[in-house]
Amino acid sequence: MNSSLINWFLLSLLLFSISSVSGFLVKPITTVVIHNDIGAGSFLTFHCKSKNDDLGVHVLTYGYTYTIKFRPLFMTGTLYFCGFEWDGTVHRFDIYDEDRDDPICTHCEWKIKPTGPCMQNPRNSKFDICYGWKP
């Protein structure tokens, strides 16, 4: 083996060891909570997935929640996108977009409303970070 290959191998081993022990290069577990806030008596059907993970179809009655836990991938923009359906209409939204959400939260709570999803603001605990539905 030549010395540059050995050096590369040792550096890779060192970085892996550091990341495993100290959390360096490993992102914290992120939690996304989805609340059905469509309206009393409503059923919210949704299907969320990422590039690597299909979470399947779920149904929430009004006032109930669904929780997603994952570890964002190192050096990639983790994205979970969902289709939300009620009253026969489908609405789309990226429920977790690392570029948008990572600076704000690792525990991200969303109320799904007819007008669009609203994220809980970590500064005041209100659901006042609201977005419209994607076209």
Describe the structure.
- With 135 residues, this protein is α+β, with helices and mostly antiparallel strands.
- The protein has a single domain, classed as Sandwich (Immunoglobulin-like).
- 18% of the residues lie in helices and 43% in strands.
- The protein is built from 2 helices and 9 strands, in the order H-E-E-E-E-E-E-H-E-E-E.
- Strands 4-1-7-8-9 form a 5-stranded mixed β-sheet, with no helix packed on it. Strands 3-2-5-6 form a 4-stranded antiparallel β-sheet.
- A hairpin with a 2-residue loop joins strand 5 (79-86) and strand 6.
- The N and C termini lie far apart (55 Å).
Tell me the total number of β-strands: 9
Major beta sheet summary: 5 strands, mixed
Strand content: 35-45%
What CATH first level would be assigned?
Mainly Beta
Shape: elongated
Number of helices: 2
Determine the structural class based on helices, strands and strand pairing. Answer: alpha+beta
Number of domains: 1
| Oligomer classification | single chain
What is the CATH-assigned architecture? Sandwich
- Strand order, largest beta sheet: 4-1-7-8-9
Give the low-confidence spans: 19-23
Determine the mean pLDDT: 89
